[in-house]
Each structure stands twice: as C-alpha cells, then as structure tokens.
Amino acid sequence: xxxxxxxxxxxxxxxxxxxxxxxxxxxxxxxxxxxxxxxxxxxxxxxxxxxxxxxxxxxxxxxxxxxxxxxxxxxxxxxxxxxxxxxxxxxxxxxxxxxxxxxxxxxxxxxxxxxxxxxxxxxxxxx
Length: 127
Known about the structure:
By secondary structure, the protein is an all-alpha fold. It has helices at 2-5, 8-21, 26-49, 53-72, 81-100, 104-126. It is globular, with a radius of gyration of 15 Å. The N and C termini lie far apart (44 Å).
C-alpha cells in the first residue's frame, strides 16, 4: 500500500484527474469516466500478464469507481436511461467477477465496447 502512495506515475495520474474534474461540464465528466474505464481495464489486463496483483486490483477498483460514477450520473428522464444503467451495471458486475476469477477476454470486450461508445460520443459532440 505504501508503494502505491509513493508511485510517481500514480501521483501524476491523480493530479491530472483532479485537474480535469474541476470545471468540467457533464459531457467532459462522462468522457473522463469512459476514459478511466478504458484505461483502467487495459491496465488490469497488463498487470495480470505481469502477475502484479496490487496493480491489477488498483486498476479494477478504478474501473468500478468510474462505472459507478457513470451509473450515478445517468439522467433518469432520458429515454436511454434504463439501457445505460443496465450497461454500466453489467460491466461493473463483470469487472467485479474478475477480482476473484480473472477473465482477460471479458475485460477486452468491455474495453472495446467502452472505446466504441466513447468514440461515438466524441464524434457526436464534434458534429
């Protein structure tokens, strides 16, 4: 645990994250959470391949936190709200399952799905 607190890359990531959250609008926050899911799942897979259980656990925890934030931020008046909540909950449950029974293929699928969602969202904002 102490190692994580002294990890310069983790400290930089935290500062970057905190700075991006401050002053962000709702779309930017959704984008940040999607980015966190994608990156954290990728880091978990990489950590598993290196047999780094501490890094894997930290990455899975970060992914679950980002999914929880996405789920809590769903506008229930939006017609797609139920589908979004189901998507986020399903991904969250699958990631939590990987804590005890790691499944890289499932995590790769989740990562790809959220990458596609993020790309579609960014294209719609740019249009």
